[in-house]
Write a structure and sequence with these properties.
By secondary structure, the chain is mainly α. It has 2 domains: 120 residues; 51 residues, no CATH class. It contains 9 helices and 2 strands. The chain has a two-stranded antiparallel ribbon with strand order 1-2. Strand 1 and strand 2 form a beta hairpin. Helix 1 crosses helix 7. The longest helix has 32 residues. The radius of gyration is 23 Å and the shape is elongated. The relative contact order is 0.11.
């Protein structure tokens, strides 16, 4: 029962995180509609500088070179002038209203994600030692470890071997052959080797 509840919480948290990413993409589409091409001059629109500029645009501010320089840092490949050109567009009241509504939605959803994370952390508190060991695996963040434990659990006794676990997780290579005939996509990959 506890495992199912934990799984429900982590899966719901993942859905909310996907929703936040979707809303951030919606903001970028609206800005593109306003002829603001920030994504063409910065590699990461969720970075500190881009986020500050987007926040200013969402407030309906017409950006100046001083605004750009106040949030600019030297690691960007684009110059402040290029950023200003990319952030100059036709933002109307309708766009500002829509952007602010989306930002409110993102803030509320992030609050839910935080609450869910706290609940997950409290449910997993008795396994803190095991979680700390799992976090030592390169690339495993706290969230990844929580998701992993919620899906698989800590009792591995029902998996006779690591092969059974990888098969259960859907990570084993498939056998796309039946009656001696290989499926079409298998043939394509074999001829490309």
């Amino acid at each position: 029962k506890e495992q199912r509840q934990l799984r429900d919480l982590t899966r719901y948290r993942n859905k909310l995180i996907q929703q936040i990413a979707s809303e951030k993409n919606r903001i970028m589409r609206i800005l593109e509609d306003c002829n603001i091409k920030l994504s063409s001059v910065v590699s990461d629109t969720s970075g500190a500088t881009a986020t500050s500029l987007i926040d200013m645009l969402c407030e309906g501010k017409i950006l100046t070179l001083d605004d750009i320089k106040s949030v600019y840092h030297g690691k960007l490949s684009a110059s402040p002038e290029e950023l200003l050109e990319a952030c100059t567009g036709f933002v109307e009241e309708h766009h500002v209203y829509l952007l602010q509504m989306i930002r409110k939605d993102i803030d509320q959803t992030q609050s839910l994600v935080y609450d869910l994370s706290e609940r997950i952390k409290s449910l997993l508190s008795k396994y803190e030692n095991a979680l700390e060991l799992l976090k030592e695996i390169p690339g495993f963040s706290t969230k990844v470890v929580e998701d992993l434990v919620s899906e698989i659990g800590l009792d591995m006794s029902h998996f006779p071997s690591e092969k059974h676990l990888s098969s259960w997780a859907g990570l084993s290579p498939g056998n796309n052959e039946s009656a001696g005939k290989k499926k079409a996509h298998e043939l394509l990959t074999e001829t490309n080797r």
